[in-house]
Structures are given as C-alpha cells and as structure tokens.
Amino acid sequence: MIENAQLIGLSRQIALQRQMDVVAHNVANINTTGFKAEQILFEEYVMPVARDRTFPNMDQPLSYVQDWATIHDLSGGTVLQTGNDLDVSLNGDGFFAIQTAAGERWTRAGSFQINNDGTLVDLSGNPVLGLGGPIQFGPDETGIAIAADGTISSSAGPKGQLRIVEFANPQALAREGDNLFFGGIPAPNANTRVMQGHVERSNVSGVAEMAELIRVTRAYESIASLTQKQDELRRSAIQRLGDANS
User: Fold this and answer.
1) Mean pLDDT per segment of 10 residues, for the chain of length 246 residues?
2) What is the sign, positive or negative, of the torsion defined by CA atoms of 85, 131, 178, 168?
3) Of the four, 14, 58, 70, 179, which is 20 to 30 A from 147 by CA?
4) Long-range contacts: 110-118, Cβ < 8 Å, 24+?
5) What number of other Cβ atoms are within 10 A of residue 199's Cβ?
6) Per DSSP, which regions of 28-132 are E strands?
7) Phi and psi at residue 165, in whole multiples of 5°?
C-alpha cells in the first residue's frame, strides 16, 4: 500500500514539474511580441487493479494524475501603438503567414522589417508572405502604407496584400519556438483586420503567472513532504519486522 501511495505521489510530482516548466516558459516570454501563453489540462487516470497485491481483499482502483494536453491561450494581448510603419497588429483571430526554411508558419508577431534584399521579413529574418508570395520593396521607396485589409502600397504604388489566415480549430496548431505555429488547415481571412503602426504584445499576465508558480511550488513541496513521511513509515515498518524476527 505504501508503494501505491508513492506511485500516486510521483505521478502528481511529474505533472507539477511539467506545469512548472510551462509557467516558466510563459514568464520568460512576457515581453515577446505576439506570444501566446500555454496551459496544461490534467485528468484522472484510474488504474483498475492496485499493483500491490499484499492485501487482496482490500484491493481497489487507484487514481493517478496525468497531464494529457497542452492548450494555447489565444486570447488577445495588449495592442501597443508604436507609430512604426512596419509594425502591424491583427484585430481578429487570424495569423500572419511566414515563410521559413521548414515551410509556412503562422504568427501573431507583427514587428516586421525590410532586409538588405528589400524583402519584408519578421524579426528572425523569415519572409512575410503576401497573397502572391514574399513582398519586395525597392531601395528608394518611401511612404509604406498598410490598409485594414492588408493591402500594402508605397511611393512606387501597390506592393501586394498581406496573407492573413484563419483556422476553424486553432487549438490543432503546434507551437514552434516562441511565437510561430504550424499545421492546421489555413482558411482565407474573413474577419481579421490589420492595424498599421501597432504591435500585439504577449498575452501573459505576470501577476497571474507568478501566483500560479507559487501555487505549483507549494503543491510540489507538499507532495515531496508526504513522500518523505511515507519513506520514514516504510523504514520504521521494516525495522520493526527485523526486530520481531531477531
């Protein structure tokens, strides 16, 4: 029975360790543009037969803790006005399309820049995709304007339109790095509007995450203390059995 209790405690500690990693990752990205926090979902795993059969008449199902999924918190972050022509935020559920070496990716991080080749890129240097592919600018172009539908123009005239995609089930997306997603079935933009001169900040709440970190730490320490007491109980039982047989 002590062994079963220790296994249950261990399952809870593993789940708490995973939760602590997620909270720490959220806190580390509190200032990452367009970052979306993560949350863990737990469920009870019922083991129908106890592993310890020493007392067969007292056998009963055992409940373990299992983290079965990590979900994206896709709530909007605070929109900050920067006045930079290449800062763009999205008002709606859509994502920017980015071309990476591994294929197309989706992001809410709209801090763009123009590289030495005149290509519109994200902060990692990945080309930002328009409906016709990457968007190019000439060296002498000025007055870049981005309309609410993503249409881009400059002193040289129309430059294309940002490719904004939406997803029927954004929870099916997988995270890559801090603020890129991949997978899913992208659909054309229907309800998302573009805001030039603004960026969407991380949606992480520092106060909420620190409170969660303290709660998880205390729960972990409580389980560790309980495990230590179970070890002491086991040692005491073994010692008494040894004394009785001597």
Assistant:
1) 71 87 94 93 72 59 77 94 96 97 97 96 97 95 96 96 96 93 95 96 93 91 84 81 72
2) positive
3) 179
4) 110/33, 110/34, 110/198, 110/199, 110/200, 111/33, 111/34, 111/84, 111/86, 111/87, 111/199, 112/86, 112/87, 112/88, 113/86, 114/86
5) 23
6) 38-47, 62-72, 79-81, 88-91, 95-100, 103-107, 113-114, 120-121, 129-130
7) -120, 155
Cα–Cα distance list, 72 to 61, 77, 176 (Å): 33, 13, 12
Distance, CA of 158 to CA of 82 (rounded, Å):
23
Inter-axis angle of helices 206-245 and 2-28, to 10 degrees?
A: 160
- Give alpha helix (H) positions in 161-205: none
Whether the Cβ atoms of residue 193 and residue 90 lie closer than 8 Å to each other: yes
pTM of this prediction?
Answer: 0.81
- Relative to beta strand 95-100, strand 103-107 is antiparallel
Q: Nearest-CA neighbor of 40 among 13, 18, 9?
A: 18
The rounded Cα 28 to chain-centroid distance in angstroms is: 12
Token readout for 35 is: 């970052």
What's the Cα-to-Cα distance from 35 to each of 74, 205, 229, rounded to whole Å?
9, 11, 42
Q: Is 112 helix (H, G, I), strand (E, B) or coil?
A: coil
